[in-house]
Amino acid sequence: MAVKVLYTAHAIATGGRNGHTQSDDGLVSVDLSVPKAMGGPGKAGATTPEDLFAAGYAACFGGACEYMGQQLKLRPRSVEVRASVGIGTTDGGGFGLTVRLEVKVEGLSQEDAERVVAAGHDLCPYSNAVKGNVEVEIEVTAV
Q1: Contact of 43 with 24, CB cutoff 8 Å
Q2: Is 98 within 8 Å of 134 (Cβ atoms)?
Q3: How does pLDDT run across 108-119, given as a tens digit for each residue?
Q4: What is the pLDDT of residue 1?
Q5: Phi and psi based region of residue 73 (left: phi greater than 0; alpha: psi -120 to 50; beta: remaining)
Q6: According to DSSP H, which parts of 38-109 are helical?
Q7: Mean local confidence (pLDDT), 52-68
């Protein structure tokens, strides 16, 4: 699949999971630390690559759902996405991720909310990037 690039983000990381990462424009600038649950120091005030991925996925997925709502002429009042990204060991000896997206759609019926979210999942570049590689569970709630 060819991609016509419309925007490119740039960032640099030093020190791996116990280091620092920053976008080229400096708007994202965070210290990283392996959480205690994974045997790391769990430094206060530090984040993880999984936190950053969850934040990006939630924002992108919400935008894709809002866009597809307009395309389907089903305009929700709001879309809230809570992304949970898990990391753990795989049977093959490496590491893998899991994703759970809890999507609250305000102003639509449950059926229409599910249509919008399914269409958003098909459109979202994060969903397309992980498709077939990461288990993504989606829960849709119309409110």
Answers
A1: no
A2: yes
A3: 999 999 999 999
A4: 74
A5: left
A6: 49-71
A7: 98
The whole-angstrom separation of Cα 37 and Cα 35 is 5
**Structure tokens belonging to residue 6:** 């419309």
**The predicted structure's pLDDT at residue 4:** 95
Of the options 2.20.25.10, 1.10.8.1000, 3.40.50.1100, 3.40.80.10, the CATH number for the domain spanning 1-47? 2.20.25.10
β 95-106/78-89 pair status? antiparallel
Rg over alpha carbons for the chain, rounded to the nearest Å, is 17
Beta pairing partners, 136? 99
Q: Which residue has the tokens 């990204």?
A: 85
Residue 33 CB burial class (10 angstroms; 0-12, 13-18, ≥19): buried
Confidence of residue 87 (pLDDT cuts 50, 70, 90): very high
